[in-house]
Amino acid sequence: MPAPLPSEKALVPFVSVENMMRLVHHIGIETMLVELADVIEADFRRWELFDKTPRVASHSREGVIELMPTSDGEIYSFKYVNGHPKNSGQGLQTVTALGLLAEVSTGYPVLLTEMTLLTALRTAATSAMAARHLAPKGARTMAIIGNGAQAEFQALAMKGVVGTDHVRLYDIDPLATEKVARNLSGLGLTVTACPSSQAAIEGAQIITTCTADKQYATILTDNMVGAGIHINAIGGDCPGKTELHRDILLRADTFVEYPPQTRIEGEIQQMDADYPVTELWKVVSGEAEGRRDAGRITLFDSVGFAIEDFSALRYVRDRLEGTRFYQELDVIADPDDPRDLFGMLQRAR
Ligand SMILES: NC(=O)c1ccc[n+]([C@@H]2O[C@H](COP(=O)([O-])OP(=O)(O)OC[C@H]3O[C@@H](n4cnc5c(N)ncnc54)[C@H](O)[C@@H]3O)[C@@H](O)[C@H]2O)c1
Q1: Architecture of the domain made up of 8-117+307-347
Q2: What's the distance, CA 84 to chain centroid?
Q3: CATH number given to 133-305
Q4: Model pTM score
Q5: Core-most of 17, 87, 223, 272, by most CB within 10 Å?
Q6: Residue in 237, 253, 301, 309 annotated catalytic
Q7: 256 touches ligand 1 (CB under 6 Å)
């Protein structure tokens, strides 16, 4: 007897890398970044109702592999993600990811997707959402130090959400800077390649650091950062991996995602346990002040939190409706008689 067809719930929509790229182009990259910033912001406003835990990290000499779960009580999500700074020297990505959404009522998965591209999009959208609340008003120029996989996404999200129109670039590898300049040409940004990080930050109101190095690094020193700057630090996201000199933090108003995770992984791991931080969700929901005045240095000490992935996954699920940008995968064993898992196996002989 042929095996019965799997039930509807047994088939899980799967978004491959190829289909994610189609979906992004169908929506438009910049539009998607702006929409992601909005859905992430909406979930930051309901921050308190989410399950929250620092991500589960498995460290090695070469990098880290992490699981990032959360739930809003109706939908559960998790992301598998790695960070391996030496990978790019071997022709591999530093960060790769995949993610899953499930319905809490049954525990059945409802979406399985690539998340390497989606992580770059959601990280940039989160940075831009934070800058919308923290950067000086009317910021037009941003500097990006570290011109790897995340850089173009960061530039376009800041353009779409904050209105920046000039990007100043620096990387220790000039080929990386050339790549970003080439990729951004024709996308409505003036791009300037700079010979040093000092040169890159000249005239910038927003500085994004997105370098990858598994050690305490000093991408910005205290004397480089003047008044009225917003720093978006995304590369310091692991124990022992930071980008800013601690003296900058002594002068900055620092904003974080989830303090128990950021205290371990963020720039603030360099500071005492009582170093004051403001949770970004409180600024977004009007409970805490963001930029106090034009002269302050604001720092978004971004490490990436599970709720941002949840928002991005739910956005993708909504945007998939009515499209062909997914396949249905038979990944859940789901016999007609739920107690007869063994019988289903036997019938398949
Ligand atoms: N906060 C988050 O949510 C989040 C999300 C994704 C990635 N990240 C982190 O962002 C960083 C960048 O990720 P990526 O995927 O773009 O990595 P990548 O390896 O593709 O690019 C990193 C770039 O930094 C450059 N670099 C290294 N040291 C430098 C220095 N001292 N000065 C200038 N440039 C330097 C490298 O040459 C490379 O081009 C990583 O550390 C990653 O872990 C954070």
Answers
A1: 2-Layer Sandwich (3.30)
A2: 16
A3: 3.40.50.720
A4: 0.97
A5: 87
A6: 237
A7: no
